[in-house]
Each structure stands twice: as C-alpha cells, then as structure tokens.
Amino acid sequence: MLDLLIEHKTSKEISRLLGISPHTVDQRIMLARAKLGVASRNEIAQAYRRLKGIYEQSVYQESPVANLPARVDELRREDEEAGFQLVTTLGITPGGQPKPDVYFHVLPEIFDGPYGTLMRLGYIAAITIFLILIILGGLAMFAQVSTMFQR
Question: Is 63 left (phi over 0), alpha (psi -120 to 50) or beta?
C-alpha cells in the first residue's frame, strides 16, 4: 500500500487497486504515520522511500550465507574425498532440497486422519477441565486455610 502512496495515489485510487475500502486505506496510512513518527502523507512517502532504499540492499551480498549452496557442495566433496558417506535425514535430498513426497508429522498420528480434529478438540477439552479442577482445588484449599485462621 505504501508503494502506491509513493506514486502519489489517493486513498480512493489505492482502495480500488487493492480491493479494500478507502476508510481502511486511511486507517492504515494513519497507523503508518504513527509508526514512522511523521505528520503528513508526503512525509510518510519520504520516510518509506528512505526505508525501502535501505532494505532493498541485499543483506547477504558479502555474507557467507550468500555462497551457502557453493559452500555446501564444497564441504560435501571434501567429505566424500575423506571417505565419509552422506546420510540424508528429514527427507532432504543430497542437493539440499526437501523431498516432495515426505510428510513431516508435527502432531502425533492420533491427531491425523478422519477423526483428528475431534481428537484435538477432545484433548483441549480434557486439558481445560483439568485446569479448572486445579483452580477449584486451589480455591477450596484457600477457603479452608482462611477459615482456619479466622478461628
């Protein structure tokens, strides 16, 4: 949206291009104005233009991360020359790309399948009931202790 503001588009033009209401555009511009600490639309455009220039510079130009694929291949060759065998884990190919047919399970398998959502909701309900019982037990203990001290 701020890119369109740099092009000196009005709120109505921006809203038509983005498919949102002009009121939403004005709200977002107001939030950007507060975030950037400026007073007008022109100052927002200038500040955003400056920030955009700073962040468009590549962060990795002189970083070792920029040459990471070449470095990985170099290390692989060194390992193979030393007699080490490459073992792939987690469904990653020797080229460093994930295998497309590998499914990574984040949750236990019981939560997958046709009743997975129902199982998750059941576990959430059970945990909620458990926490409520702990809170009620704590309140009951507090009530008993407070009656002991009142006597």
Answer: beta
